[in-house]
Design goal:
The protein is built from three helices and five strands. By secondary structure, the chain is α+β, with helices and mostly antiparallel strands.
Length: 153
């Protein structure tokens, strides 16, 4: 009887753990699509808000070497909105390809993607063009992104 109960509990625990992974894989896909849409030449405020809806209000963010402080502040999402609005529509070309998704329990997702962008920098009006492979580690909390850490390959 005890063995049967233990087996049932193990099966339930294993099933619950496995059930979390597909949800985070689907979330990673939604996140990548929403993030990529904010970089498109025709990106809109609605695209930006769809992306920001996936984040906690106090989201922390690093994008080395430019943004190094990942402190979660009450206005984290508002600060990201302001920064992203400045660059919204700056690209004349943008392409992104999702390369890998890694799920770590129900606490983190890593996405690896390659992207290419071309445009005019809104601050100095200089032409920009870059191609890079990125890794974003997304720390999750209550079904939303709590901390974003971006790394270049």
């Amino acid at each position: 009887m005890v063995k049967a109960l233990m087996a049932a509990l193990l099966l339930l625990t294993t099933h619950s753990a496995m059930a979390a992974s597909p949800d985070l894989h689907a979330f990673a896909q939604r996140y990548f699509q929403a993030m990529s849409a904010t970089q498109a030449p025709d990106a809109s405020k609605q695209d930006l808000e769809a992306y920001l809806a996936l984040l906690m209000d106090d989201v922390g963010h690093t994008h080395l070497p430019w943004e190094t402080d990942d402190t979660r502040l009450p206005d984290g999402k508002a600060a990201m909105r302001e920064g992203m609005m400045f660059y919204l529509g700056a690209h004349t070309e943008y392409q992104a390809e999702l390369l890998d998704v890694f799920v770590f329990n129900d606490s983190a997702i890593a996405i690896r993607y390659r992207h290419h962008a071309k445009g005019i920098h809104p601050q100095n009006q200089q032409a920009i063009e870059y191609t890079s492979t990125m890794m974003e580690l997304l720390e999750m909390e209550n079904g939303k992104v709590a901390v974003i850490r971006k790394y270049h390959e």
